[in-house]
Amino acid sequence: MSTSYQTKRGCRGDSGRLSMPKTLLLLAFSFLLGLDVSAKGLRLSVAESEMFSVKMLTDQLVAPWALAYLAQSQSLLITEKAGKLFRFDLNSGTLSLITGVGAVQAHGQGGLMDIAISPDFSTSKLLYFSYAKQVSKGQFATSIASARLLQSATGWRLQSWRDLFVSQPASTSDKHFGSRIAFDTQGHLFFSIGDRGVRANAQKLSNHPGSILRLNLDGSVPADNPFVGLAGIEPAIYSYGHRNPQGLYYDREQQQLFAIEHGPRGGDEINRIEPGLNYGWPVISYGKEYWGPGSVGEGVAKEGMQQPLMYYTPSIAPSSLIFYQHSYFSQLKDSFLAGSLVLRHLNQIKFSGNYSDYKQWRWFKKARRRIRDIAVLSSGKIAIITDSGELQLISNSAQR
Q: Residue 10's pLDDT is what?
């Protein structure tokens, strides 16, 4: 059954409530730090207000993680890390709970993470999810599941939740689960797994963490994966040497996969992903150690390891990656867009010269919002979710 949420669900701790003393304490600290916790939505600079208009669709979310646009029903599907799935109806403006999510338990940075709409959704009704699966007591693994999205007189629900792939090995670590999903045009699914907080994992081909994996839509391993048939290597691995990729985008025209990943202290990267290649972590990195000024690994380059298309120093903490191709926003056209968690803005990157050069813009810096995920509507408008629990719609101010 679908449940409508007409009132704000609010911020929740372990008890599900934020007490008045804690609220006052939060406001006091926010005042001292100069943070504006009362403002709603994305605050715009004067220049931004001439290009963009922002509308708050809902602020009722709690730790949202991923966003998917379902054009067939003019709705946005939103995951919450704790294991809930919601549908926001763009026509009616209502937020409703979708039942049928599998056994998801939030664990540190993991929980219910990405959601992706199957390329054949019009017939299959399939959605794909990445989530932190509890394999045994205290042991979690980044996993892929599918389920059918159905509508009935009583509302929207998932049917036949099914695990397609469970990464190995499971770990007690609560860090670096990844995990985004992308599809190519040949019936394959890509998804990313971070190193789970153990750096050496990313250079081990005998395990999945620190890799981008490629599967068939049913969860089986494609016969043409780069390491199929090689002893001691996990055949699902497509590329490796990744720290914690939380953005994936597949360019259908170029038939090319791109990823954005978290570096340590500096060294976030955008990479063009090729089969079988090593992207260097933790042997090479443009980041610094957390505990001091020293660089991570052996340096910034090494033979046999790939260089990023670009890197960020200092880190922006990238949370997502899309490519904007619509003419609705001329300023954003033909650019990558990435959400930023630490520097709290929408990052625009426009490459030129076969990715040999780029320009970068940073939008909505005044908003002070951790932008978690981004989706482009068929109209060209942009929807975003923030760690503040907000779903917002960005429109062209000239076409309101």
A: 38
Residue 169, token pair as written in the block: 């090995």
Q: Is 302 exposed, middle or buried (0-12, 13-18, 19+ CB in 10 A)?
A: middle
pTM of the model: 0.90
Is 208 annotated in the active site?
Answer: no
Q: Is 175 helix (H, G, I), strand (E, B) or coil?
A: coil
* Options 176, 188, 208, 242, the catalytic residue: 176
pLDDT of residue 173: 95
Geometric angle at alpha carbon 85, from 20 and 338, rounded to 5° = 85
Q: Is the pLDDT of residue 30 over 50?
A: no
Average pLDDT of the segment spanning 54-65: 96
**Per-residue b/e over 212-246, b at no fewer than 16 CB within 10 Å?**
bbbbebebebbeebbbeeeeebbbbbbbbbbbbbb
HSE-up of residue 97 (Cα within 13 Å, Cβ side): 15
pLDDT in tens, 238-297: 999 999 999 999 999 999 999 999 999 999 999 999 999 999 999 999 999 988 888 899
Half-sphere exposure of 224 (CA within 13 A, CB side): 4
Q: Is 342 exposed, middle or buried, given 0-12, 13-18 or 19+ CB atoms closer than 10 A? A: middle
